[in-house]
Amino acid sequence: MPGEQPLAAWDFDLPEERIARRPAPSRSGSRLMGLPLSGGAPSHHRFTQLPTLLKPGDLLVANDAKVMAARLAARRASGGAVELLLLSPGPGAIPALARPARKLRRGEVLTLQGGDTAIITAEAQGGVVQLELSSDPVQVMAQQGSLPLPPYLDRPADDQDTDRYQTIFAGPLGAAAAPTAGLHFDQELLTALEAAGIGFVTITLQVGLGTFLPLRPEALEAGRLHTEPYTIEAGAVERIEATRAASGRVIAVGTTSARTLEAATPEGARVPSPGAGVTDLFVQPGYTFRCIDGLITNLHLPRSSLLMLVAALVGRRRLLDAYAEAIQADYRFYSYGDAMLLV
């Protein structure tokens, strides 16, 4: 049932020095903890060893969403500074996380640092306003926006992030945060996976506002999350069908891919339906997975829906025990951190 465990049950102690503030020197140079779904102790590897840890005929499904340079600096007519985080590339009215938000009124005009303007078309709800830009939003972000790094990195984005906070297979623009499990893949690793007979295909989930907001008890109780749009092309579905027919495993690269595949797979089926949709699926322990047989994922925040999704595969206590071992073994946590393989 939704909210079976209280939110406090998903806490764990993480030393500050275990938070990865910067990416590893190379994409695939991170560490990889294996946690068998069948039980047993964790194992420890490098991410470059992934082809040897999977089986020929397995299929990796990754999220190819491209992160927008969505963070914009603006000023009110009074001179007060406002930070905007666009949650959509437009066109039309755009939802944006604003700081501060509660003072902004409908009809107010903000001036961006590049001279463009943003007019507030709807006042804040949960810190999110609606606005319209005087110029094309994609062009505005390209010219004056910065990547919206997660708050726990506690620093502005720089030139290194422009490259490393995007996957090498990023496609459709529209995400407010990176699908971080995909950050570990470089071209050499993709080539090695192909040579080992392991497939790789992409789908799209535009990661949104939930990445920046804490999980609230009411969401836990309701068993639903914020909504995010997704697209699964027919070619990806065909690859999944072929993998199933050959008794291969479907392994999601990241919780966003897992959430998308599960949301798009009808009850009683093992293969997702193609097309576009919107999901508010909240995967928690007790959920029965329809599509995926395994998961590659980073090490997540306490009290997060992402942590709960991973626990739905292996159990809360076993996952938290693995996290404790990862902390003892000096694994790096969060967006730029190390990874886990659950198969």
Mean pLDDT: 94
Per DSSP E runs of 2 or more residues, the count of β-strands stands at 17
Helix content: 10-25%
Write the H/E string, N to C: EEHEEEEEEEEHHEHEHEHEHEEHHE
Biggest sheet strand order reads 2-1-17-16-14-3-12-13-15
Beta-strand residue percentage: 25-35%
CATH homology superfamily of the largest domain: QueA-like
CATH class annotation of the largest domain:
Alpha Beta
Query: Can you tell me the number of structural domains?
Result: 2
Q: Tell me about the biggest sheet?
A: 9 strands, mixed
CATH-defined topology of the largest domain: QueA-like
Structural class: alpha/beta
Terminal-residue CA separation: 25 Å
Show unreliable segments: none
Please describe the topology of this protein.
Blueprint: E1 31-34, E2 43-46, H1 50-53, E3 59-63, E4 66-67, E5 71-75, E6 81-86, E7 94-99, E8 109-112, E9 117-125, E10 128-133, H2 137-144, H3 159-164, E11 173-175, H4 187-195, E12 199-205, H5 217-222, E13 224-232, H6 234-245, E14 250-253, H7 255-264, E15 275-281, E16 294-298, H8 305-314, H9 316-328, E17 339-342
Parallel strand pairs: 1-17, 3-12, 3-14, 4-11, 14-16
Antiparallel strand pairs: 1-2, 5-6, 5-8, 6-7, 7-10, 8-9, 9-10, 12-13, 13-15, 16-17
Helix pairs in contact: 8-9
Structural overview:
The chain is an alpha/beta fold. It folds into 2 domains: 7-67 and 159-342, 3-Layer(aba) Sandwich (QueA-like), CATH 3.40.1780; 71-145, QueA-like (Thrombin, subunit H). Helices cover 23% and strands 26% of the residues. It contains 9 helices and 17 strands. The protein has helices at 50-53, 137-144, 159-164, 187-195, 217-222, 234-245, 255-264, 305-314, 316-328, and strands spanning 31-34, 43-46, 59-63, 66-67, 71-75, 81-86, 94-99, 109-112, 117-125, 128-133, 173-175, 199-205, 224-232, 250-253, 275-281, 294-298, 339-342. The strands form 3 sheets. The protein has a 9-stranded mixed sheet. A 6-stranded antiparallel beta barrel has the order 5-6-7-10-9-8. Strands 4-11 form a two-stranded parallel sheet. The longest helix has 13 residues, at 316-328. The two termini are 25 Å apart.
